[in-house]
């Protein structure tokens, strides 16, 4: 300055000092400084001002001053005449930003190609804002492309930020780099990040602001990250949220992010918007989310988040307006603290696993417009306080376990447009107050237990477009006032107890597209006014008691696509006006009393399913059906249709099912049926069809059922039918077919039902039929088959229903291989020419209930089989010489000589035989003495030397031979062969020299030291070895010795069910296998109780006594062991058993034990605690899902059917009143024939429902 700066110093503490220009204080006696001089002057003044700082602590040290004066040379803001104290004061005062201004100048100079002096002088004026970017670019270069322009824009934006008139607003040179590095580090951790291709360094000035998905604020700091639907894969943990302190919006929705939500996310405390929805994030919600005190929108829905929601999360979320956590497996109760979030507008908690009640505090959320808590396990009642949420627009509580009544306070929700309460257990009546909710658009109360009438106040809901009340117990009539709800588009009242007639006022609902009134008790006629509902697309009136005719006004319903009228009492002819319904896709008229002709339907070529079966329709098949190529299903059976099928049908490429049975159709089967390649069922039985079976039928590769029985077909079966490998039912009976049965039928590997009866087939029965291993029913009766019965039929071990070869010309003996047909129930070999005896092995056909061998040439005893012994005399008439303990047959121990002849022969024999017998007796006595003394030892030695390799044929030598084999195999009961212990002895695994593997049970000696009575022991063994059932462990034999006795059983590889349920193998025992185990045990017990004579009781049934092979086939073991040790004990009275499985009373104790076992299989553990609670009222509240073995995944629909049926039967077996328990025959029949139970929804099935079922 050339003088003392006194006046200047006094003004430095004022705001005016910042406006002083440098040029005004320079010594005016000297010429203005040149560039180099100006740099020095600027630096000197800047350092001087820093040294004059009012706060001594903020002044630089002299070391810093020297350093700056010695090294800095670039501090020259431009233009020079504008340099103010504002710049210089700040330059040295905040040393970390000393180069920011210079950086801004340099950045502009690079873009402009020249020093931006003029630009700098105008920045403080209003004119600067009008400067166009294109006007300052270096004109020597071509205009930048889009990609390059982003870089240019960003550079200039940063430069202008650095040149701000307020130095406090200047950015630092380091924070940009920190944000970029944090983002790049996260990108590098992602498995899939192609969308982030622009994320790379060097970026302009190290800034990420030009990267895809990144938005910066005015200071160049990252404020938004939007990477929604960018196919990102990886975790959030590597993203350093601490480096993003200015982040206000983060959207990573619709990606494939996984892992936990990192707790450090709370570092971005300025977040206002956070959307992580539709990823694969898991774990619990981190408590650090509570740090997001500015959060307004939070969406973490549709992930895999689990655990309970901490109430602490809601303390600081005072600004939260949208909370969306749906579609996760979150559990526990809904925190009542949510009621404190009074800014909340939207709350979505649906599709989780929440339990407990709906918090009444939700009534505090008076701003809430959407509340979705659907698809959880919420119980209890709907809180009255929900009626306080007067801003509510959408309320969804469906698919829960809610009970109680619909609170009348819901009528306060006058803004509500959507109310979804379906699929709960809500009872009571529909409150009249719902009529106050005049904004309602959709109301769904279906699938509950609502009773009473439909309230007439519903007429007030004039905006309602969807009304769903189906599947309840609503009674009364349909209110006439519903006709006033003219906005309705969908109305469903099906599955209730509605009576009365269909109100004609429904015709006012001209916007209605779906009307469902089916499955009620509606009577009367169909009102003609229905024809006014011209928008109808779906009309369901089936399964009612509607009578009279179909009105002709139906012809007006030209938009109708589905019409269901089946199972009513409709009569008369169908109106021709139905031909106008050109959009019709489904027409179901079955099970009515329609008569007359069918109209020409399918005029528009849209018809998919047409059913008019079980009526009195007559006349020809409509000509319009011939060209209706869209057809998928046609069922017109059981009418009086006539016409030539060769002309009536065309080619239907989409046809899946057709049934024209029981009509009066004639003509021949056309070869064009071979073009219906999607056909699975073809049924033309009981008509007047002639001609041959076209070979082209063999081209129907999807065909599963072919029934053309009871016609007049002739010729041979085309061998091409052997190509129908999907076929399970082939019925050609009652025709005039002839020739040999083609061997190619043996290729039908999926065939279960084969009926060729009542034809003219001849020749031998083809042995290739044994390849049809799934065959359950085989009917070849009333033909001309000759030759012997192929023994290969005995290999069809799945034959169950019937084997009928009667009324043929079969010769030879009955194949003993038939004894392998252990599931067969009915056997008819009558009216043939069979000879010889009935094989005694037929006694092994344990399932046989009906038999007929009459009109043959058989002789000898009947097998010891229940079906033979209980058959009527007519089943054995006209044979050569059958005998047995059956009415009409002679006993087998008598001669056929007459009584008179026997008397004469007896007198002659006495005079001759008596002297001869005396001599022979003396000789015999000497011989016996000799052999008794000398031959006994040799017998034993010879037998030992022979060592018959067939272990199971030498059980009558006091265990001597077997004893050596067993002891050798298990080294005198060495513990290394020990595999288990039962109530009566230890079990060992024996690998015999013959290669056979058996289980050996060494019986415990009597406690009183007495020896087992050998005679009784062998008698019991004899009984037990005759017990044959596929689900009872086979007893091969025994050894009874003075030192020890043991039994030899079939070896089961997996050991006991108890062991499997308690180790890792339980995971292999899936739900269907478990159901099969229970079914197998039931069949075995049914056999023991009802098919054995006398019947047997196990008395010790438990999971320890159920053994499994490698395929998890279940067999009962330890059957009858108690009687072996105490043969004098009664089959029915002695109580012996495992604790926890035995019933409180002795009768039906096996049934009770079976119930315990069934529950144990489903639960994976003994149901001890559950059993003790069954007699209490609390048991009915137990949910089925809560007792299932948690080691297995939840059952699918088919699996749940089996599980529910199993548990229902188990509960019936555990009834405290023994007389009320079902028999094992009934249990076995239910498990074998029922298709399972399916109570919806799965997660709500309770013991109460299962106990109420009639088992």
Automatic annotation (TrEMBL):
Residues annotated to bind ATP: 1002
Membrane topology, as annotated: Single-pass type I membrane protein
Keyword GTP-binding part of the UniProt annotation: no
Protein kinase domain sequence ranges: 973-1245
Transmembrane intervals: 912-933
A GO BP entry: anatomical structure morphogenesis
PROSITE patterns with a match to the protein in the record: LRR (PS51450), PROTEIN_KINASE_ATP (PS00107), PROTEIN_KINASE_DOM (PS50011), PROTEIN_KINASE_TYR (PS00109)
Name this polypeptide is given: non-specific serine/threonine protein kinase
Annotated Pfam families: LRR_1 (PF00560), LRR_14 (PF23598), LRR_8 (PF13855), LRRNT_2 (PF08263), Pkinase (PF00069)
Keyword tRNA-binding assigned: no
Recorded GO CC terms: membrane
Signal peptide: none
Keywords attached to this entry: ATP-binding, Glycoprotein, Kinase, Leucine-rich repeat, Membrane, Nucleotide-binding, Phosphoprotein, Receptor, Repeat, Serine/threonine-protein kinase, Signal, Transferase, Transmembrane, Transmembrane helix
Localization in the cell: Membrane
Molecular function in Gene Ontology: ATP binding; protein serine/threonine kinase activity
Reactions listed under catalytic activity: L-threonyl-[protein] + ATP = O-phospho-L-threonyl-[protein] + ADP + H(+); L-seryl-[protein] + ATP = O-phospho-L-seryl-[protein] + ADP + H(+)
Annotated EC: 2.7.11.1
InterPro entries hit by this protein: Kinase-like_dom_sf (IPR011009), Leu-rich_rpt (IPR001611), Leu-rich_rpt_typical-subtyp (IPR003591), LRR_dom_sf (IPR032675), LRR_N_plant-typ (IPR013210), LRR_R13L4/SHOC2-like (IPR055414), Prot_kinase_dom (IPR000719), Protein_kinase_ATP_BS (IPR017441)
The protein's enzyme class: transferase
């Amino acid at each position: 300055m050339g003088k003392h700066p006194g006046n200047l110093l006094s003004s430095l503490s004022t705001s005016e000092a910042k406006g002083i220009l440098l040029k005004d204080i320079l010594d005016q006696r000297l010429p203005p400084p040149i560039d180099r001089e100006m740099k020095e002057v600027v630096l000197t003044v800047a350092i001087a001002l820093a040294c004059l700082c009012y706060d001594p602590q903020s002044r630089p040290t002299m070391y810093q001053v020297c350093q700056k004066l010695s090294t800095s040379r670039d501090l020259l803001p431009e233009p020079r005449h504008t340099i103010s104290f504002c710049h210089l004061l700040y330059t040295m005062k905040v040393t970390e930003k000393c180069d920011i201004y210079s950086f801004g100048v340099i950045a502009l100079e690079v873009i402009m190609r020249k020093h931006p002096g003029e630009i700098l002088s105008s920045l403080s004026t209003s004119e600067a804002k009008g400067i166009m970017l294109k006007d300052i670019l270096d004109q020597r270069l071509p205009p930048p492309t889009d990609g390059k322009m982003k870089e240019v824009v960003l550079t200039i934006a940063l430069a202008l930020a650095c040149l701000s008139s307020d130095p406090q607003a200047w950015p630092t040179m380091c924070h940009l780099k920190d944000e970029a590095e944090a983002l790049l580090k996260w990108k590098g951790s992602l498995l899939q990040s192609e969308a982030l291709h622009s994320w790379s360094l060097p970026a302009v000035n190290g800034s990420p602001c030009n990267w895809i998905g990144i938005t910066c604020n005015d200071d160049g700091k990252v404020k938004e990250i939007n990477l929604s639907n960018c196919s990102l894969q990886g975790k959030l943990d590597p993203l350093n949220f601490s480096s993003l302190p200015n982040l206000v919006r983060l959207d990573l929705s619709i990606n494939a992010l996984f892992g936990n939500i990192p707790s450090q996310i709370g570092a971005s405390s300025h977040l206002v918007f956070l959307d992580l929805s539709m990823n694969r994030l898991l774990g619990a919600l981190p408590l650090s989310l509570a740090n997001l005190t500015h959060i307004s929108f939070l969406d973490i829905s549709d992930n895999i988040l689990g655990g309970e929601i901490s109430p602490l999360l809601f303390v600081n979320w005072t600004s939260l307006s949208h909370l969306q956590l749906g579609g996760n497996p979150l559990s526990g109760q809904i925190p009542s603290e949510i009621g404190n979030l009074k800014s909340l507008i939207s709350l979505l908690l649906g599709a989780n696993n929440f339990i407990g009640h709906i918090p009444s505090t939700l009534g505090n959320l008076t701003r809430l417009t959407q509340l979705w808590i659907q698809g959880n396990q919420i119980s209890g009642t709907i809180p009255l306080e929900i009626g306080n949420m007067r801003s509510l627009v959408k309320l969804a509580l469906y698919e829960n376990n809610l009970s109680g009544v619909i609170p009348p306070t819901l009528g306060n929700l006058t803004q509500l447009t959507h109310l979804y309460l379906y699929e709960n257990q809500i009872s009571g009546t529909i409150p009249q107050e719902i009529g106050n909710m005049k904004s309602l658009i959709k109301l769904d109360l279906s699938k509950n237990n609502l009773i009473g009438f439909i309230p007439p106040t519903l007429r007030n809901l004039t905006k309602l477009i969807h009304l769903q009340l189906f599947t309840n117990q609503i009674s009364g009539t349909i209110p006439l006032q519903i006709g006033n709800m003219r906005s309705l588009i969908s109305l469903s009242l099906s599955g209730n107890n509605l009576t009365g007639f269909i109100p004609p006022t429904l015709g006012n609902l001209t916007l209605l597209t779906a009307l469902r009134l089916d499955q009620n008790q509606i009577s009367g006629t169909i009102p003609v006014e229905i024809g006014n509902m011209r928008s109808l697309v779906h009309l369901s009136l089936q399964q009612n008691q509607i009578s009279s005719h179909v009105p002709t006004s139906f012809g007006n319903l030209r938009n109708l696509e589905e019409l269901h009228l089946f199972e009513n009492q409709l009569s008369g002819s169908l109106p021709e006006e139905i031909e106008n319904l050109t959009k019709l896709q489904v027409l179901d008229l079955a099970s009515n009393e329609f008569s007359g002709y069918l109209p020409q339907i399918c005029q528009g070529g849209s018809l998919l399913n047409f059913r008019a079966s079980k009526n009195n329709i007559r006349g020809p098949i409509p000509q319009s059906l011939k060209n209706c190529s869209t057809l998928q299903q046609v069922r017109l059976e059981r009418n009086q249709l006539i016409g030539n099928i060769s002309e009536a049908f065309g080619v239907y490429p989409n046809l899946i099912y057709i049934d024209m049975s029981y009509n009066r159709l004639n003509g021949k089967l056309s070869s064009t049926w071979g073009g219906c390649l999607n056909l699975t069922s073809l049924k033309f039985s009981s008509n007047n069809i002639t001609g041959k079976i076209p070979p082209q039928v063999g081209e129907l590769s999807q065909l599963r059922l072919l029934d053309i029985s009871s016609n007049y077909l002739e010729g041979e079966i085309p061998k091409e039918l052997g190509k129908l490998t999907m076929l399970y039912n082939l019925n050609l009976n009652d025709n005039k077919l002839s020739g040999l049965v083609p061997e190619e039928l043996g290729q039908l590997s999926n065939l279960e039902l084969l009926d060729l009866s009542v034809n003219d087939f001849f020749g031998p029965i083809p042995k290739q039929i044994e390849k049809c291993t799934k065959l359950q029913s085989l009917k070849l009766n009333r033909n001309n088959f000759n030759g012997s019965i192929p023994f290969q039929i005995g290999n069809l071990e799945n034959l169950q229903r019937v084997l009928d070869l009667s009324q043929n010309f079969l010769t030879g003996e009955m194949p003993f291989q038939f004894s392998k047909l252990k599931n067969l129930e009915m056997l008819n070999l009558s009216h043939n020419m069979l000879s010889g005896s009935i094989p005694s092995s037929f006694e092994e056909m344990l399932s046989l209930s009906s038999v007929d061998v009459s009109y043959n040439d058989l002789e000898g005893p009947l097998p010891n089989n229940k079906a033979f012994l209980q058959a009527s005399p007519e089943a054995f008439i006209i044979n050569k010489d059958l005998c047995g303990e059956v009415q009409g047959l002679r006993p087998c121990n008598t001669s056929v000589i007459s009584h008179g002849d026997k008397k004469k022969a007896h007198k002659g024999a006495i005079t001759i035989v008596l002297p001869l017998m005396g001599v022979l007796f003396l000789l015999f006595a000497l011989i016996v003495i000799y052999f008794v003394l000398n031959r006994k030892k040799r017998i034993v030695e010879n037998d030992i030397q022979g060592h018959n390799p067939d272990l199971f044929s030498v059980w009558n030598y006091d265990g001597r031979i077997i004893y050596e084999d067993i002891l050798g195999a298990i080294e005198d009961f060495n513990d290394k062969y020990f595999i288990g212990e039962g109530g009566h002895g230890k079990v060992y695994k024996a690998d015999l020299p013959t290669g056979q593997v058996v289980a050996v049970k060494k019986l415990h000696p009597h406690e009183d030291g007495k020896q087992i009575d050998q005679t009784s022991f062998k008698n019991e063994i004899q009984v037990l070895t005759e017990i044959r059932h596929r689900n009872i462990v086979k007893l091969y034999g025994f050894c009874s010795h003075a030192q020890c006795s043991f039994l030899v059983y079939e070896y089961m590889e997996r050991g006991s069910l108890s062991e499997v349920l308690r180790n890792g193998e339980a995971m292999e025992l899936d739900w269907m296998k478990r159901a099969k185990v229970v079914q197998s045990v039931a069949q075995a017990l049914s056999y023991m109780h009802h098919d054995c004579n006398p019947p047997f009781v196990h008395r010790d049934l438990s999971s320890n006594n159920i053994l499994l092979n490698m395929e998890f086939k279940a067999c009962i073991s330890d059957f009858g062991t108690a009687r072996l040790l105490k043969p004098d004990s009664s089959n029915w009275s002695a109580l012996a058993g495992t604790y926890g499985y035995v019933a409180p009373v002795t009768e039906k104790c096996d049934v009770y034990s079976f119930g315990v076992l069934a529950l144990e299989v489903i639960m994976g553990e003994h149901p001890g605690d559950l059993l003790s609670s069954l007699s209490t009222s609390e048991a009915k509240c137990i949910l089925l899902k809560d007792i299932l073995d948690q080691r297995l995944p939840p059952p699918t629909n088919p699996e749940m059917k089996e599980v529910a049926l199993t548990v229902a039967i188990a509960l019936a077996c555990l009834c405290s009143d023994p007389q009320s328990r079902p028999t094992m025959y009934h249990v076995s029949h239910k498990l074998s024939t029922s298709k399972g139970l399916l109570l919806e929804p799965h997660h709500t099935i309770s013991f109460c429902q299962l106990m109420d079922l009639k088992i």
